[in-house]
Design the sequence.
């Protein structure tokens, strides 16, 4: 007697495959006769090539191949030369100069969407800002130098962009980037942001995570003072945890901060003032106290609005992918390449923040972005990950 068979399931893996799409376009000979010439003339017409099948003009790279290359580099942190080696293993030979050209052309294709993203983020009333280094080849010095990539995050929705301006994080870059911004700007204690204390319609906010880190670094130098500061900062975070656990509204969170966090900050500020003159300015504890003392007005403002975060950690999280990429693909070839990287990082960063499938989104956008080339009634914002998510939901 045969019983029901025993079924065992094992998971296998098939490496990615490349395939060739053939687009067949009909060609016709058109014969015509002009009034001036009794002789018939003829010419050939060919059906137009749909742009969705060839995002980059005169290129044999389809949308899915371009998406694979960009995602593997800027999400999975695989430099192009490794991807080229991997492609060779499955029988596909991609010349490195061609792949580099595809990267630049893809960034150029997506740049208008990137500019639209920047407009949207800077039009919100609460942003978080941070910067990180990115190695860039300096052709004059024949070595890599650290340039700065700015990150700007809309704190109330899942949109973020990166900005590169010749590797600078000077005041003039901030003045240009945020010239039209109105609202709350949350940053660390970098001195450039001090000017926004005096700019109308901008409310600077600080980051308690940075302040806490300063005291953690000074534990070996002055344990007693550092532990006291960390205890007080910890109490502020306990208030936030309570608000999270109770799932409070923004208004309720603001009231909780007013009654529980604000008194802690008043006491801590008095302690900073009292201890400021008792420690060596250049000691780790002296630097930690000075850091908090100098920007305490910024640090304490988060209690004014329940929407404001106690720290800039969400912004720092957005920089982690760039930090991992920095370790793997080592450098950007020049300033232009770093600007192109900012475009790709920005759009894929929005995918990550919105939990949108990177590949599905990029294939869709590369296949449809040309639809927006000549129809100026269409808004490129429709292609951003958040809009795409609403479209497919």
Sequence:
């Amino acid at each position: 007697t045969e019983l029901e068979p025993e079924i065992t399931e094992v998971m296998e893996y098939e490496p990615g495959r490349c395939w060739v799409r053939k687009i067949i376009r009909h060609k016709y000979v058109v014969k015509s006769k002009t009034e001036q010439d009794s002789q018939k003339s003829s010419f050939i017409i060919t059906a137009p090539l749909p742009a969705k099948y060839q995002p980059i003009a005169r290129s044999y790279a389809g949308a899915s191949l371009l998406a694979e290359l960009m995602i593997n580099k800027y999400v999975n942190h695989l430099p192009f030369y490794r991807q080229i080696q991997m492609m060779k293993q499955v029988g596909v030979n991609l010349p490195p100069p061609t792949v580099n050209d595809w990267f630049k052309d893809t960034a150029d294709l997506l740049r208008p969407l990137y500019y639209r993203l920047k407009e949207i983020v800077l039009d919100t009333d609460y942003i978080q800002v941070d910067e990180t280094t990115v190695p860039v080849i300096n052709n004059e010095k024949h070595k890599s130098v650290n340039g700065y990539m700015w990150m700007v995050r809309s704190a109330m929705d899942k949109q973020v962009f990166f900005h590169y301006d010749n590797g600078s994080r000077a005041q003039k870059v901030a003045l240009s980037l945020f010239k039209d911004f109105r609202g709350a700007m949350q940053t660390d204690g970098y001195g450039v942001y001090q000017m926004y204390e005096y700019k109308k319609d901008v409310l600077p906010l600080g980051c308690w995570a940075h302040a806490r880190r300063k005291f953690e670094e000074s534990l070996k130098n002055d344990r007693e003072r550092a532990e006291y500061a960390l205890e007080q900062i910890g109490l502020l975070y306990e208030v936030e945890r309570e608000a999270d656990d109770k799932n409070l509204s923004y208004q309720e969170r603001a009231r909780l901060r007013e009654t529980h966090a604000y008194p802690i900050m008043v006491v801590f500020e008095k302690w900073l003032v009292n201890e400021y003159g008792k420690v060596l300015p250049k000691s780790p504890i002296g630097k930690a106290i000075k850091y908090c003392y100098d920007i305490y007005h910024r640090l304490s403002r988060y209690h004014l609005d329940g929407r404001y975060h106690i720290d800039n950690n969400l912004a720092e999280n957005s920089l982690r992918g760039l930090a991992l990429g920095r370790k793997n693909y080592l450098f950007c070839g020049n300033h232009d390449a770093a600007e192109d990287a900012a475009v790709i990082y920005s759009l894929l960063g929005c995918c990550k923040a919105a939990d949108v499938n990177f590949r599905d989104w990029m294939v869709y956008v590369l296949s449809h972005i040309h639809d927006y080339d000549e129809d100026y009634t269409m808004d490129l914002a429709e292609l951003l990950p958040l809009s795409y998510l609403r479209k497919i939901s």
Remarks:
- The chain has a mean pLDDT of 92.
